Amino acid sequence: MPADPTAPSGPVFLPLFQKLVPAHLETPWSPEDGMEPGELDALLAASPAAEAGLRGSGEVPMPLALYEFHLALGNCPDLLETDHFFWDADELEILDGFLLFLEDAGETTVWGLRLEDAELPDPLVWRRSTGADSEHGVWTCEGGTFSEFATDLLDWTFDETGDETEDEAVE
Question: Cβ contacts of residue 119 below 8 Å, gap of 6+?
């Protein structure tokens, strides 16, 4: 089968995600922060999302941006486990037609990507009003793509931590 002429010829989002390490951890990115494609593929194959499968194929519906996010940062808990927890590749789940990838620390809200958008390189992010273990929840579009959302969330997280407000400084 000939190569897809519309497919990217190299990493698209990887450099963006690699830059998050020096930006927020003040250390250079290293290969140990990320994963090799074979390692990532094995973890994805072991995930609940793979067990649920996409159209019975047993494959995880993985947009390029999310895949390269794990390639860049899959072994960097200092970024992935803060006020929000990005799920490890072997923890990804499918719920309500969404591929879940993030949960808040209180496990009250989850974020996902619509399965019908899985073929897009950088789909829009959706938020569920309840955690993954809740029976019902309402999905709302966040209005940004995965790469925008992930970088904005980490920028916000690290800008907020350690900053004192005027009220805190006075007390």
Answer: 63
